[in-house]
Amino acid sequence: MDTRVPLLAALLLFSALPSLAVPPADASESPWWETYSRDADRNGISDLLAWKLAQGDRFFAPDEARVFVRYDHRPDDGDVAQLEAAGATVTFRAQFIDLLGTTMPRALVPIVGEWPGVVMLDDIGKGEPQMNEAVPAMGVDLAWELGFDGAGITVAIVDTGVDGLHAGLDDQDDNPLTDDPKILVYYNAYDDQEYDGRLSEDSGTHGTHVAGITAGTGDGDTAPDGSRYVGVAPQANLANVLVCCSGDIEDIIRGIEWTMANQDRFGIRVMTSSLGEQQVEFHIDNDGRSAWSQAVDAAVESGLVVTLSAGNEFGAATVAGCNTIDSPGDARLPITVAALDKDLSLAVYSSRGYTSDGRVKPDVATIGSNIMAPNKGTVTGYTSKSGTSMATPLMAGIVALTLEANPDLTPAEVKETIVAGYSIEREILDDSDLYTNDCSLLETRPDNEYGYGQADPRTFVEVAGQVDPLLQVAWTIPPRYETVNGTDVEVKPEIHNASWLYGGADSSGSPVASGVEVRFGASGWYPATDTSPQGDWTYWKIRVPPEVAKGNQTLAVRLVAAPDRMSPIDSASVVLLDERAPASKQEDSPGLPLMTGLAALAVIALRRRD
């Protein structure tokens, strides 16, 4: 099928609507390096790299620098040869993002920055860890009651490693006489070698704890009341991807790329990492464009659901706690996880948004405080740790349960339909802690503290089983552009109170019992009106209810064919205005539902093609 046809149809339909904001003909997203928040002076050398170079031998070996050379193209043999001829050593060649890892003489840095095709020289930096009761507190046991335990799902633990000798991680059934290893493979990024999972090891202690939260069987020492410290998805398998922390971020990206390349071999559906960029004297701007952040975005695009920690920069204490999401938690496509205490209030240490480029983060919250999980080197021991590091693997386990309920879910459907659509809404003002710090200016859902809210495992697995990708629904909300410094930049559409919204749906010929339903931020589901001549919801409309919360909101729409069958959710980020539109714009144009519905169907056609 030629995708140009529906795309052209969509553009023609949008241009035919005089009342809608149509993107300028020359509008396009600027290359990332032109707006990179870590290069404030726009000289092609990141501010952090420049600062480290000015510190003498504090961060690098004498006369050397560890540098990511980032290109506007996938670097080839010629790029490698050019660097080596100039005196640099190429230590890493990325497969999925446009960069080379190098060690180069410091004097070479400004020279390489002037080469054609080189768009940024970036500090490689280092990664570091983001440092029985959580399961019932989060409602994980309610998902277990439905029969889900993670079976058939492999989770990659990208961390310090996993101790394969611990009783809670050595096998699936806690029976030493059976051959059922939990850890399917062990990859060591330092030597770029793959080993049998039975040889799995941890270079520290962090990764073993993380792995047990996700998928530990609970074998070994018990709690004082006799209960076991069972992970969220105890029958999930693991891939140990050891990347931290004696090297640098190059090793971490190497491990991420290994996971992407080998996901089909080992059935890896989820990648979780509780590592963050090592901080220096100042907080590093995070706009989702660092090499590490782009690598995890690429991992999602490859088909992996990725969970990342938000960071532990004491978001609740002061205003400075806002805008503290760490890299790579600032990436656009993964699920970034905040931490809750066991009473389900937001942990004071949990980092908060915005990102440096104004996006809302994190995406969801789970318990991260005082989590008991396997203690590396003890065989049967368990220990308590706190942090978004602990909340993140808990979320990875919930994702494993969700994918077991519906293995056909895509990463986008997990994030946009399940997490965004069915997390339990939480508000920062619900917390009684005196150190509450509200980092959300206009946002109500998602916000910069909880994201879309508290993860709800039972609801996630129930809804996952109902999602049918054959059913599709789409908004027709045209983009809005503003001119900033001579460049047309896409911004959130503004929607007046009580104005009409339109869209389309495709039921693939199935009867539709309930129809299209819309949620405005954290509101309940509102029924839309079917405007299609056939009565099959091909075109639909809804008027913005006057009572819904205003400000920055996420609109969600779903097509419900039956009580146990619905489409993936289509979301739109907008600004709901408190004032009503002029009287002329409040009226429903007779031809508008048809035209906008056709545009939505063109979008659906493209989605099915992809």
UniProtKB/TrEMBL annotation:
Active-site residues (renumbered) = D159, H206, S389
Hydrolase recorded as keyword? yes
* GO biological process assignments: proteolysis
Please state every residue range assigned to the domain named Peptidase S8/S53. Answer: 150-453
Answer whether the UniProt record assigns the keyword Hydrolase to this protein.
Answer: yes
Composition bias (Low complexity) maps to 211-222
Q: Which GO terms describe its molecular function?
A: serine-type endopeptidase activity
Per UniProt, the keywords (alphabetical) are:
Hydrolase, Protease, Serine protease
Q: What is this protein called?
A: Peptidase S8/S53 domain-containing protein
Organism of provenance: Marine Group III euryarchaeote
